[in-house]
């Protein structure tokens, strides 16, 4: 145990003793990526802007970069990552915020949460076994008996599936979830003695009768103040002051209009 602590101390010490010129190089590279992201965003290349801002933030923690990454993600419809970034910004992971900045970030958090969709996934036929639930191929939980899994995600079309522990039985459904919508998905596993059957999902939006393995019903729950699909605000680009010794100083966050 002492050896483990000693190794950790060495690693922490090594990180702390990283040469100042290396940290300065990171800040300069981060600034360059930030400026490239600004150019990409102004020309409408949101994906490029997003990726450049991610790289900039990884090199040098900056409130300006984090704020602009969050607004770019919102514009691109990636609300989950935008929410995570905003929550980190609110919690001062990238530095302290002025009171008016804190208030603006908290408002953006509430609006971003309202734009996320929620799936409630219920299962029939699983018995007492713990059945793995996946959304778009990623595990999001397990259901045993009459339980359910709630999963928050970006709006759009998603594939929901259930996989029995025997490895032979599964059910799958394709669901469209709108912003701020809650969708109930019921998956039905075939009996243990029956072979699992699969068929291709239709290319168009399937009806309840067409769904493979279950049906989905929309809950009447749309969060108050949900922003319409075409009304996502364009985030205000926060320019960096090239004359500041701290290459990533945050200018004042201006009021955003939603």
Question: Could you please describe the fold and organization of this structure?
Answer:
By secondary structure, this protein is α+β, with helices and mostly antiparallel strands. The protein folds into 2 domains: 21-115 and 227-258, Serine Threonine Protein Phosphatase 5, Tetratricopeptide repeat; 117-219, Immunoglobulin-like. 36% of the residues lie in helices and 22% in strands. The chain is built from 6 helices and 8 strands; from the N terminus they run ααααααββββββββ. The chain has helices at residues 2-16, 20-42, 46-59, 63-75, 79-90, 99-114; strands spanning 117-124, 130-135, 138-144, 148-153, 156-163, 170-177, 182-188, 214-219. The strands form 2 sheets. The protein has a 4-stranded mixed beta sheet, with no helix packed on it. The chain has a 4-stranded antiparallel beta sheet with strand order 3-2-5-6, with no helix packed on it. Mean pLDDT is 74; it is low at 1-18 and 196-258.
Helix content estimate: 25-40%
Element string (H = helix, E = strand)? HHHHHHEEEEEEEE
For the CA atoms, what is the radius of gyration? 23 Å
Largest sheet: 4 strands, mixed
CATH class of the largest domain: Mainly Alpha
Beta-strand percentage range:
15-25%
Distance between the termini: 54 Å
How many domains? 2
CATH superfamily of the largest domain: Tetratricopeptide repeat domain
| Poorly predicted spans | 1-18, 196-258
Strand elements, count: 8
Q: So what's the overall shape?
A: elongated
Q: What strand order characterises the main sheet?
A: 4-1-7-8
Per CATH, which architecture of the largest domain?
Alpha Horseshoe
User: What is the number of helical segments per DSSP (H or I, 4+ residues)?
Assistant: 6
Quote the average pLDDT: 74
Secondary structural class: alpha+beta
The CATH topology label of the largest domain is Serine Threonine Protein Phosphatase 5, Tetratricopeptide repeat
């Amino acid at each position: 145990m002492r050896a483990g602590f000693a190794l950790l101390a060495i690693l922490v010490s090594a990180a702390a003793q990283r040469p100042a010129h290396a940290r300065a190089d990171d800040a300069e590279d981060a600034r360059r990526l930030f400026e490239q992201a600004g150019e990409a965003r102004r020309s409408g290349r949101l994906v490029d802007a997003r990726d450049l801002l991610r790289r900039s933030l990884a090199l040098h923690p900056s409130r300006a970069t984090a704020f602009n990454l969050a607004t770019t993600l919102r514009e691109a419809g990636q609300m989950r990552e935008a929410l995570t970034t905003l929550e980190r910004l609110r919690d001062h992971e990238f530095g302290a915020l002025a009171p008016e900045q804190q208030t603006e970030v908290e408002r953006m958090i509430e609006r971003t949460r309202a734009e996320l969709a929620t799936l409630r996934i219920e299962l029939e036929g699983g018995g007492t076994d713990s059945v793995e639930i996946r959304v778009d191929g990623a595990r999001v939980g397990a259901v045993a008996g009459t339980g359910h899994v709630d999963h928050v995600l970006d709006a759009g079309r998603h594939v929901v599936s259930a996989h029995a522990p025997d490895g032979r039985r599964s059910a799958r459904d394709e669901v469209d979830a709108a912003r701020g919508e809650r969708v109930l998905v019921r998956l039905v596993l075939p009996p243990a003695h029956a072979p699992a059957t699969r068929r291709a999902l239709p290319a168009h939006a399937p009806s309840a009768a067409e769904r493979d393995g279950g049906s989905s019903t929309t809950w009447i729950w749309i969060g108050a103040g949900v922003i319409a699909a075409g009304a996502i605000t364009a985030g205000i680009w926060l320019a960096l002051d090239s004359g500041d010794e701290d290459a990533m100083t945050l200018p004042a966050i201006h009021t955003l209009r939603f």
